[in-house]
Protein: Glucose-6-phosphate isomerase
Organism: Devosia nanyangense
Amino acid sequence: MASNRKSLLNTMMKHRKRLDDQPMRLLFALDPNRFRRFSVSAGDLLLDYSKNRIDEKAMDALFALARAADFEGRRKAMWAGKHINSTEDRAVMHMALRYQGDKPVKIDGRDVMPDVREVLAHMKLFTSQVRDGTIRGTTGEKFTDIVNIGIGGSDLGPVMATLALAPYTRPDLRSHYVSNVDGAQLHDTLQRLDPKRTMFIVASKTFTTDETMTNAASARAWVATALGDKAVSDHFAAVSTNLKACDAFGIREDRIFGFWDWVGGRYSVWSAIGLPVALAVGFDNFSAFLAGAYEMDQHFLKTRLEKNLPVIMGLLGVWYRNAWGFATHAVLPYDQRLSRFPAYLQQQDMESNGKQVNLEGKPLDYDSGPVIWGEPGTNGQHAFYQLIHQGTSVVPADFLIAANPHEDMAPHHEKLVANVLAQSEALMLGKTREEVVAELTAQGLDKASIKALTPHKMFPGNRPSNTLIYPKLTPAMLGSLVALYEHKVFVQGTIWNVNSYDQWGVELGKQLAKAILPKVQGTAANTGNDASTKGLLAHYHKLRG
Ligand code: G6Q
């Protein structure tokens, strides 16, 4: 943080100290309007952030911090196509992929919208032809199974969105995702499939990623063995910026879908990387997903900071990370179909803001991105919520809930809603000594038992959470939710002054794996590594006989 930001950080600490003595239950008791004052909407999406350790003064200090970090200038620079991904010298323009307006969107002086629309039109045609059976397998059978082969940004977004939009999929066109280089995943997927009715999408921005290329080569061999080498071009499509490599793999020109270096992998679900989603839910639903994200973009770009959802969520994250020292943040969707949303956000957030140097390459002297984790409620309640309620670490949490389910199965949804409301209330209120004693007394326990049990049954409370509530998990709402979190990451990256759009931290392991592979394969001597790696290699070879 620049020095003025540093001093604002110190100001934040003063607010924290003041709020240390003001439990949320007291703040709620003193202010009947707290919900109204600390909730905001973007379209149909409501964020209730009243159950946070804040008051108006603290929020004002946070908005001042954003302004001191020139958040508005950086947001403008991103949308103007400036190369804000400085270490890779690239623009960060995923918002162009879902832009619904009619103005030019320029990067380096060139309007990118004609290219974006051309790829979308290509996706639309391909999607409708696969779904209506115009495009068929080499033996003339309709495709019933689509296997996306990709990893990281070329996998997590499409998997998450396909699961989230299950009510919009067709039972006769199933989606599968293979990402891991562990052959178990491809093996177990292929075992259930008929090559004659299976289409593969090789999704790789670079078309060089080892895991993806290894899986793609094995899938190609599976098709060629069953149907002959010529069938490959009928059973494969590709999504990539590396058109030459797709061609060399044997993919027909009209089945190659391009995108651009200004789309980061973890921000690429809106590009042709979303092709498996469009195939699964149909192009109209995919378009609605883009339109929902566009709505959030407009909110993010045009709404003043004090009413801006991504800004508020981003600032609360900074507040807890830097003024309170909370190291993790849970995302808890009370929406089974968002089961992969936390995993998706792990990449989006942790790859973006898990950084140790600032934009100038200087070491940070404050904490950056937290650990993001989570699982759908109510399952988590029967697993890790114990720690969230009574553990020694405080875990700020986001709860997500739809008002309307897709299925008519009373009383399931009412119970789900009651649980999500109960959890955020319990975290905020806690349970005092007096309350526990009164409860145990009413149960008829003797004095000694009450004394022994009371500390175990007390809840500290005062544990922060946000609640996001929306009418229904539609494609448009999913688009808005994903874009909301993308912009939240941007807000935090701006305040922490890091490059949220590179990911050099994934490189070292890749380099070492390349060097170790011949030693695993036994074509190179087991020398040169540290003693642990050497010992493990030796033991591995012993186990392999
Ligand atoms: C995301 C990262 C990373 C990337 C994968 C796959 O932002 O860049 O997760 O998406 O490494 O890369 P390819 O799409 O090039 O195979």
